[in-house]
Amino acid sequence: MNAVSQIAAPSVVNHVIHASYDGQDPEALTVWVLFHAPKKQISCSDYLGPADEFLARVDVEVDSPGPSSVIKSIPLRARAGTARVHAPKDLQTLYLSTSVGSTAKQQLPLKNAGNISVCLEVKISNQDSCFAVEPEDLFLLPGEEREVTVLFSPKNITTRQSTLKILVLPSGPQYEVVIKGEVQSEGNRPVSTAAAGLDIPPILSNKQFLAWGGVRLGSSVQKKLTLRNASPSVTQHLRLLIRGQDQECFQLQSIFGSEERLTSSWELKIRPKEDTNIYLVFAPTRVTCCFAKLEIKQLGIQSWPGIKFTIPLSGYGGTSSIALENVEKLTGTYVVTLDGLLPSGLRTASFHIRNTGSRAAYVKALCFAGLRMKAVMDPQVMRVSPEKFVLREGTHEVVTITWNPIPKEMNFHKTNALLSTVSFFCGDEVSRQQYRR
After folding, report:
1. Neighbours of 427 (CB within 10 A)
2. Where is the Cep192-like domain (predicted)?
3. Euclidean distance between the first and final Cα of the chain, in Å?
4. Same fold yes or no, 85-188 and 322-436
5. What is the pLDDT of residue 2?
6. How far, in Å, CA of 397 to CA of 390, rounded?
7. Cis omega (within 30 of 0) on the bond before 135?
8. Is 275 helix (H, G, I), strand (E, B) or coil?
9. Rounded CA separation 337/294 (Å)
10. What is the pLDDT of residues 37-82, one digit of tens each?
11. Is the pLDDT of residue 290 over 70?
12. Which CATH number fits domain 85-188: 2.60.40.10, 3.40.630.30, 3.90.226.10, 3.30.230.10?
């Protein structure tokens, strides 16, 4: 619990409940319990920890001259936090376009960026307008994202504008999104996607998805994909937009001269038969798996409205980091001396492998004959125990190397001969589990 309510003096309510007689309904009493969350000053940019929790109890006692006893206790629990609702910055104003008698739709993602669950009431400021929204009520858990659909159904050729109001029940805050509707004439009415399917200028990508794997918190990793305008004559006007539950961790990197900018949306033009490199950056802010998508939409040509291509984006924050302890370190390698000849003729050495990262690591050992690491040694002669294991973050494992020399190797202990090269292959356990699935 982050906070537990402490009341200087208990709140007491006295009430007389009269006795009931045969044939009479017993008297009932309704008691209202009010919770007033303490005031807490917090700015829009402040980090939100978990919500505060408050505990109390209602004791029901019989008021009598003698010692009183509790006949019933009802536990009370309340949570106080901050409500924040985020929408993509590039969708602070929604533009919809269609002809009279038709309906245009636009999705608006809403994300609960606060630390408590919220009930949202979404409505259009002017109920008699040509705009509507579905659904009008939303319930979002912390971190959850859902979409509402804004509809524009013009009844005449007049351009419309309204406001989409998003109210956090019961008493705010309230957010507003401007909606603008443009009415197209019949002559410019766009044809359907199916009808124009053969004429859509093709956009090709060298990647069907982008997966970063693990990235250390506080760091960022760039990846590149290439888009090609396969049309022989049409210049493509494209709009790139990153969306999804973890869209804040992925950004587009655009370069203007010597200046680099990070953004969540970008517009560009690709000439016929031209290739353009798109750079994306993944910068995780927490130890969790992150997912989003890159939407590529064609603009500027009314003959192909709303054509979108989607490239999934994924990665996870935090990585494992393996270090060897209690071994002799040389340039680029480690040396372990096998000593302590046992009565059985075995020679052993033990050391620690520690995970100093923020993710669990999977470690596997292999013993090779020589430095070139081409031939694996017989496990009856040289073995590592444990051979493979999962090492959680902040922990260590004691690893033992055991050598059981064959007769012709018995004299090796008198010299500093190289017996074997032991390689430890390691990686993030979360990545191994993902590949196994």
Report:
1. 18
2. 3-83, 86-183, 324-437
3. 36
4. yes
5. 39
6. 9
7. yes
8. strand
9. 53
10. 877 776 655 667 788 888 888 888 887 777 777 888 889 888 888 8
11. yes
12. 2.60.40.10
CATH code, residues 322-436: 2.60.40
417, two tokens = 């001969």
Q: How far is CA 167 from CA 110, 125, 186, 252, 289, in A?
A: 12, 12, 37, 31, 30
User: Reduced to 3 states, what is the DSSP secondary structure of residue 200?
Assistant: coil
Tell me if the domain spanning 201-317 has CATH number 2.40.50.140: no
CB-side exposure of 329: number of CA atoms within 13 Å? 5
Least confidently predicted of 90-104, 133-147, 241-255: 90-104
How far apart (Å, rounded) are the C-alpha atoms in residues 205 and 268? Answer: 15
Q: What is the distance between the alpha carbons of residues 70 and 66, in angstroms, rounded to a whole number?
A: 13
Cα-to-chain-centroid distance, residue 246:
4
pLDDT band at residue 192 using 50, 70 and 90 as cut-offs: very low
The Cα–Cα gap between 46 and 84 comes to: 12
The encoded tokens of residue 45 equal 């940019």
Domain ranges for the chain = 1-82, 85-188, 201-317, 322-436
Which residues touch 386 (CB under 8 Å, ≥6 apart)?
Answer: 397, 399
- Could you read off the pLDDT of 301-351 as tens digits, one per residue? 544 445 578 899 999 999 999 999 988 887 777 888 776 555 567 788 889
When mean pLDDT is compared over 99-113, 227-241, 342-356, the highest value belongs to: 227-241
Q: Which residues contact 109 (CB under 8 A, 6 or more apart)?
A: 87, 88, 91, 145, 146, 147, 243
Average of per-residue pLDDT across 393-405: 89
Q: How many CA atoms lie within 13 A of 47 on its CB side?
A: 3
Q: Which residue has the tokens 């994300």?
A: 111
- Per 3-state DSSP, the chain is made up of helix, strand and coil in percentages (nearest 5) of 5, 50, 45
Q: Sorting pLDDT into bands at 50, 70 and 90, what band is 155? A: confident
**Pairing between β-strand 174-184 and β-strand 250-256 as defined by DSSP bridges:** unpaired
Number of H helices, E strands in the chain: 1, 30
